């Protein structure tokens, strides 16, 4: 199919009824017809074949429709329907040249091209020129009669006619003036209208309801060409501003916007060809629907690939973007307003519905970026909150006040960010993200608060631990009647001080009263548990403590001086006292008495174990103490009993040792021979005694020997050495002094012989050792005594050393040494 047979005209529908979509689109593009909106008019011409239709259009609108060559005779030249742009006429006007009618009636068959094209022209055109020969007016067999009948009949098939202007152009007018011709023509038209079959709804509808009838007459183009052109030029003027009120098509209805013209024309022709009724209002809605959708889709596609939008979307991926809302609003506005301007002339309801759809799609497209941005804003606000809170807390601000201030500032910043991100086209709701931020902030505050409070609690717990543990341990070490009272007092004092300080420290957290109470109670419980734990620890080593107590009492006198078992001591009483002291310690350790409730544990223990009072039933044959709840019991009565047995068996050795030491001491002090031996010595040695008295040299020798013996006696602590038995004493003394004495005697012998030989290295060493010992003795006269005292005490408390812990041993040794040194 040829698109453009003439340079400016386009075949819209060919002789076979094929619609030239490409040609029409090309026409619309080249003439920029699509941009005309509603400001355009369509002028169609119909009439008998070779009645000069193309000639008239060409002269009227400066178009170039093909005309018949007059010299080649009358034959049909125009096939199908052609269109052309009427250059120079405002508004944009399209001329439509229809194939000529053949002047014969074809019955009621609507499928002929003649009727189809007539219906198409009536549905599309605002003005229809009916070309007719002047001599046909008033004639019964006029060629235009079937044409008019066709026009009126098809008009009935349009549900809502467009009020088309029918401009009757009388060709080859005679001298008869138009004033005479027009009424005859109108009468002819009315007659035809009257006989046309009309639907019941339009039975009495006047012609004027459907048509504006205008009549004009032109002289013959062939015979009076100049006059013809003059009249055509005048007629042309009537097509200027034809669509405005008062114009040829001033009261037209149901115009399809120019951008929908192509689609509309195609659809109309399709419906006509399918021989269906042409519901113009429905068609208009359909055209609007299709076109608005097309426009909306096109806008959406362009928005999706808009460079500004893509840049914005990318920027939002990596962080917050300032001015997001303003920039996005502007981008969206561009496409929405383009849609509005392009769809403005389409059916309002359809247009609005499609706009909403476009908005919804566009907003769906950009909404993720908005959410992304809100995510950044939320993250940023939360991070700012964290750092600000930390800073304020570092500066010493109160916790709750800092939390409030930081929350307020960060939420305000977030709100500002949201306002900046908001777009004009939608009322996006940031409240969910805001709530999430608030939740995040609250959770952070809570976690920081918990951490700070835990830190504070730990600090006070550590403080309590330091204030309570050692003093409590020390009180247990010195366990006595007042131990638990002292512990209670200590616990109360330190706990209340700590609680007071702690409650002041947590004021800035502005906690609710129940929480404060629970925390303070927690601290009190902690302190109490510390003491309980310590008490359990000490109770766990009660046997050692008892033995330690026993040793302390047993091995020291009332002035805490180490005992020397001289034989005068009442070991039985001392043992009893020491055991009683140990049992009192056991009684102290047997139960926790933090609640100041009196009990009879000490009485029970002392009477049952110490005094051996037998009562029935045995108060110690139980696993609970009377008046003491099980959780406060540290050592059950039964355990006390078994501990006592173990204690007694383990301390027995100490007592035995003490008795042995006492007997040894007695033996070592009783060194004089028996009286009968002394008498025998005096009787038998009388002569020798007298010899000594008579010889002063012997007397002097005896005196010197006595002094030396005495010195050695004292120096070597001979009685002390013999405390452990005679043999041990002899070995100890001989091992210490024999080499020295031997050397001394050797030297004396050598000197007596007068042979002074050089000293051997061994002799030199011995001499130096002897000298050092003497010096030491002179410098620290007590050291040897102290040494011997310590060794004696260690021997007494052997058993206690065996069971005591190292520090206890050290403590004991130190105590003993100190006491001895001060002595
Ligand atoms: N008598 C007379 N002849 C005319 C007039 N105008 C044009 N013609 C002649 O009529 C013949 C047909 O002219 P067209 O303009 O081709 O007529 P048409 O109606 O377009 O023809 P089809 O499209 O084939 O139906 C030509 O030879 C014209 O010169 C006129 O006003 N009077």
Automatic annotation (TrEMBL):
Intervals, Cytoplasmic compartment: 1-672, 718-823
Low complexity bias (residue ranges): 783-805
Compartments, as annotated in UniProt: Endoplasmic reticulum membrane
Region forming the signal peptide: none
CDD domains the record matches: GBP
Renumbered residue ranges of the record's region Disordered: 779-823
The entry's keywords: Coiled coil, Endoplasmic reticulum, GTP-binding, Hydrolase, Membrane, Nucleotide-binding, Transmembrane, Transmembrane helix
Broad EC category: hydrolase
GO biological process: endoplasmic reticulum membrane fusion
Membrane topology note: Multi-pass membrane protein
Domain (GB1/RHD3-type G): residue spans on this chain: 37-252
Family assignment from sequence similarity: Belongs to the TRAFAC class dynamin-like GTPase superfamily. GB1/RHD3 GTPase family. RHD3 subfamily.
Stated name of the protein: Protein ROOT HAIR DEFECTIVE 3 homolog
């Amino acid at each position: 199919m040829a698109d453009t047979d003439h340079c400016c005209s386009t075949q819209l529908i060919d002789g076979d009824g094929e619609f030239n979509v490409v040609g029409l689109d090309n026409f619309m593009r080249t003439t920029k017809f699509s941009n005309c909106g509603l400001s355009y008019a369509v002028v169609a011409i119909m009439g008998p074949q070779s009645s000069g239709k193309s000639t008239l259009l060409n002269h009227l609108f400066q178009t170039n429709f093909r005309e018949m060559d007059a010299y080649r005779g009358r034959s049909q030249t125009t096939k199908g329907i052609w269109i052309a742009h009427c250059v120079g006429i405002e508004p944009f006007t399209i001329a439509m040249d229809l194939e000529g009618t053949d002047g014969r009636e074809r019955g009621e068959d609507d499928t002929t091209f003649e009727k189809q094209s007539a219906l198409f022209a009536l549905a599309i055109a605002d003005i229809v020129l009916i070309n007719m020969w002047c001599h046909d007016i008033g004639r019964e067999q006029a060629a235009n009669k079937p044409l008019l009948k066709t026009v009126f009949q098809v008009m009935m098939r349009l549900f809502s006619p467009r009020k088309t202007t029918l401009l009757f152009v009388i060709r080859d007018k005679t001298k008869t003036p138009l004033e005479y011709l027009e009424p005859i023509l109108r009468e002819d038209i009315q007659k035809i209208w009257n006989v046309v079959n009309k639907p019941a709804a339009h039975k009495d509808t006047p012609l004027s309801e459907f048509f504006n009838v205008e009549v004009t007459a032109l002289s013959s183009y062939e015979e009076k060409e100049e006059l013809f052109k003059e009249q055509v030029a005048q007629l042309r003027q009537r097509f200027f501003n034809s669509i405005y009120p008062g114009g040829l098509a001033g009261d037209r209805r149901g115009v399809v916007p120019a951008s929908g013209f192509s689609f509309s024309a195609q659809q109309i022709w399709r419906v006509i060809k399918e021989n269906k009724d042409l519901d113009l209002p429905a068609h208009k809605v359909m055209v609007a629907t299709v076109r608005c959708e097309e426009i909306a889709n096109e806008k959406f596609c362009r928005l999706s690939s808009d460079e500004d939008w893509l840049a914005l979307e990318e920027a939002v991926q990596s962080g917050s973007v300032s001015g997001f809302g303003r920039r996005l609003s502007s981008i969206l506005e561009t496409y929405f307003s383009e849609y509005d301007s392009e769809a403005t002339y389409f059916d309002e309801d359809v247009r609005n519905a499609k706009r909403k759809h476009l908005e919804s799609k566009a907003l769906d497209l950009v909404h993720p970026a908005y959410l992304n941005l809100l995510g950044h804003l939320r993250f940023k606000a939360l991070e700012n909150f964290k750092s600000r809170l930390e800073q304020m807390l570092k500066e010493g601000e109160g916790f709750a006040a800092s939390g409030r201030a930081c929350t307020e500032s960060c939420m305000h910043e977030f709100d500002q960010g949201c306002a900046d991100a908001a777009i004009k086209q939608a009322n996006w709701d940031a409240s969910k993200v805001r709530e999430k931020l608030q939740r995040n902030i609250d959770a952070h505050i809570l976690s920081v608060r918990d951490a700070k409070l835990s830190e504070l609690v730990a600090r006070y717990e550590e403080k309590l631990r330091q204030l309570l543990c050692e003093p409590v341990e020390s009180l247990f070490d010195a366990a006595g009647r007042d131990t638990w009272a002292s512990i209670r007092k200590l616990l109360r004092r330190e706990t209340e001080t700590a609680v007071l300080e702690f409650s002041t420290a947590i004021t800035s957290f502005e906690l609710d009263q129940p929480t404060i109470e629970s925390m303070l109670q927690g601290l009190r419980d902690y302190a109490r548990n510390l003491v309980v734990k310590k008490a359990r620890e000490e109770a766990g080593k009660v046997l050692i403590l008892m033995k330690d107590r026993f040793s302390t009492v047993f091995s020291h006198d009332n002035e805490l001086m180490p005992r020397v078992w001289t034989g005068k001591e009442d070991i039985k009483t001392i043992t009893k006292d020491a055991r009683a002291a140990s049992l009192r310690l056991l009684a102290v350790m047997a139960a926790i008495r933090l609640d100041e409730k009196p009990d009879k544990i000490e009485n029970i223990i002392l009477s049952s174990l110490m005094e051996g009072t037998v009562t029935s039933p045995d108060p110690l044959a139980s696993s609970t103490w009377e008046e003491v709840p099980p959780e406060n019991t540290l050592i059950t009565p039964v355990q006390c009993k078994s501990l006592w047995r173990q204690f007694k068996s383990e301390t027995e050795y100490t007592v035995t040792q003490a008795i042995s030491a006492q007997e040894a001491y007695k033996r070592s002090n009783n060194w004089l021979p028996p009286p009968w031996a002394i008498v025998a010595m005096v009787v038998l040695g009388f002569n020798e005694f007298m010899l000594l008295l008579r010889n002063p040299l012997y007397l002097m020798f005896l005196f010197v020997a006595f002094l030396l013996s005495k010195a050695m006696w004292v120096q070597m602590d001979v009685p002390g050495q013999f405390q452990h038995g005679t043999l041990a004493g002899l070995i100890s003394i001989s091992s210490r002094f024999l080499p020295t004495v031997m050397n001394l005697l050797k030297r004396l012998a050598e000197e007596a012989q007068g042979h002074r030989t050089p000293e051997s290295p061994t002799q030199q060493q011995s001499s130096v050792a002897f000298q050092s010992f003497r010096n030491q003795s002179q410098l620290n006269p007590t050291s040897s005594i102290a040494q011997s005292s310590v060794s004696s005490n260690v021997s007494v408390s052997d058993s206690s050393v065996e069971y005591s812990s190292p520090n206890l041993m050290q403590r004991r040794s130190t105590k003993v040494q100190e006491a001895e040194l001060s002595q």
